[in-house]
Description:
alpha/beta; Rossmann fold; disordered N terminus
Amino acid sequence: MRRSFALPRMLGHALGLLTCLALPMTVQADSCPPPGQWLQPGGERLDSAALFANLAERDVVLLGEQHDRMDHHRWQLHTLAGLHALRPDMVIGLEMLPREAQPALDAWVAGELDEAEFLDASNWRSAWGFDPELYLPILHFARLNQVPLKAINVTPELRGRLAGEGWDGVPEDERFGITAPAEALPAYRERLAAVHAQHPSAGDDEASLERFIAAQLVWDRAMATGLAEATAEGALAVGLIGQGHLQYEHGVPHQLNDLDVDAHATLLPWAVEVDGCELPPEGLAHAVFTLAETPAQAQPPMQLGVYIVPHEAGIEVRGIQSGSVAESAGLEEGDIIMRAAGEALARPADLTQRVQRQPPGTLLPLEVERNGERREILARFPPSDGGSDTR
Length: 391
């Protein structure tokens, strides 16, 4: 029986919304703090030496990010280096990869793989989708210092099964021993409901919202469990996680508390503007680090908007994102994409790399097998100044 991948697709889009969701209750500042400062939410400046000494006594430190922001990853690397100087017994937990990618992470740290081999072995481009160049400096830091890397996420398929079938419906060995999550805090439910409402294909019924919240809690619990496992033998576990999972202690921090890991702290980046700014609201995090406002990001790589898995004849489409290039082109679940622009496809990364090289405003011919028949489908990518959805 074919499972529906609507929930994983919705979650993939909603994660971006949750990560970038505007924060409420900000406080207008009389003057902006300069970039490069540690602040306590509310505005008080923190002494960095005292802060890091305090962080070094924790079991878990959570470093938030907006996934496509290079300055956020530079800040994470800066913070990792400071923590490592005090706690060389460090483990870095990555939201970016599911647990199936752990052998590739181990081989990378051991120096057994080069960059291309690691990206292939970890299935990075299909599992995560964000440009690996954003994360490679951190990966090299871990390799240079022999800091273990731990995959703390789960696949969209497993998230969908746990949210749809329930925890009793999935054997423990198929969910990596992850236990059922604590209920969402009321304020977190409100924020997730706001994210759910922004998704174009979200149902407006209570059942759809509850499925979405259940899947989000799977996500939070999986990452909290991975970090709890990493710190079980006394190591400092540092998690690199989207900021929407961390703000106000609602997501992963709440699940860590339920797992009896109380000594944790959340750190977030905070952009300060040139002309007036807002201070981080109280309760947002343990501390924030001020970053200079950055200009708008360059045109992101093209995206087709499909969830794909390997197939003996090419690449199988398991899901289509609403509003995507793939949907507009007429791709369907179950299609086997055999060639892109005449190039044979043997693995999901082949298609991802080909799509990311596609110039804006052009057509990409795809050779597709559907129900035993071959056909050509033209994927039309939006121009660089267009308003089309390029997910």
